[in-house]
């Protein structure tokens, strides 16, 4: 990033303010709201115009301090049958960070109803998927997966599976399909302030370089927790009239 239009002091001030707001919130209220969000901090992005074609392929934002950690986060890897082949490969190559491997046929059989699909989606923090089965997962996982922004991240099934899995765990994901406003998890309140700030600036840098429509297409950037006010760190006052033709895509 050559010259980010977001001054670092604005990010510092916003993170410090989130700490204050956190302390002011009632503990019981916060507990009830955080069941699915675990004290996550969100970067909220508002675009001036949207891509013409909607896509559930996310914009990947690398994080210096990952929010998905092996041994702490629940990560499910959905694979092409037979699942045993992939399970053995992961074990033999000591690929860490994956809590469960499940084949498509078992997934369809075991989680066939809406209630079971919702239970399955809620049980994991992140879904990865063999890129060969991704097209069939929308129907298999159901709407809950998309509503919770837990769309499986494609993994190429080659000799670098371990590298690609680790890369996926070291990123956060921004989806832009339902209106101009979207959000990505960029840290946790359990992180120290420096780690949160570094994550925010890293995400801003990626957006600065590769945001759909260019940086000029970003209306605003805000930081918030699940139960806090959204605190602005960037606001554009110019118009962007060009029509976007590309969709958000992973880098």
From TrEMBL:
InterPro entries: eL8/uL1-like, Ribosomal_uL1-like, Ribosomal_uL1/biogenesis, Ribosomal_uL1_3-a/b-sand. The keyword Transport does not apply. One of its GO terms (cellular component) is ribosome. Pfam families: Ribosomal_L1. Keywords: Ribonucleoprotein, Ribosomal protein. It comes from the Eukaryota. CDD domains: Ribosomal_L1 (cd00403). GO terms for molecular function: RNA binding. This is 60S ribosomal protein-related protein. The lineage of its organism: Eukaryota, Rhodophyta, Bangiophyceae, Galdieriales, Galdieriaceae.
């Amino acid at each position: 990033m050559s010259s980010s239009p977001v001054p670092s002091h604005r990010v510092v001030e916003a993170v410090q303010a989130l700490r204050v707001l956190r302390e002011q919130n009632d503990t019981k209220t916060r507990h009830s709201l955080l069941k699915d969000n675990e004290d996550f901090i969100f970067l909220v992005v508002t675009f001036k115009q949207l891509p013409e074609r909607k896509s559930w392929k996310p914009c990947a934002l690398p994080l210096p301090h990952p929010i998905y950690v092996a041994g702490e986060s629940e990560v499910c890897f959905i694979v092409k049958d037979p699942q045993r082949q992939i399970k053995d490969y992961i074990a033999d190559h000591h690929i860490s960070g994956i809590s469960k491997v499940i084949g498509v046929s078992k997934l369809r059989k075991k989680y066939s109803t809406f209630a079971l699909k919702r239970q399955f989606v809620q049980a994991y923090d992140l879904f990865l998927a063999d890129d060969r089965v991704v097209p069939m997962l929308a129907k298999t996982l159901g709407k809950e997966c998309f509503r919770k922004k837990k769309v499986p991240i494609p993994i190429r099934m080659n000799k670098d599976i371990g590298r690609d899995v680790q890369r996926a765990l070291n990123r956060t994901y921004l989806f832009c399909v339902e209106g101009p406003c979207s959000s990505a998890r960029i840290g946790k309140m359990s992180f120290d302030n420096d780690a949160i700030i570094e994550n925010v600036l890293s995400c801003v840098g990626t957006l600065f370089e590769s945001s759909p429509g260019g940086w000029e297409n970003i209306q605003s950037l805000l930081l918030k927790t699940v139960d806090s006010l959204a605190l602005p760190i960037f606001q554009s006052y110019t118009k962007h009239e060009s029509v976007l033709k590309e969709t958000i895509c992973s880098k």
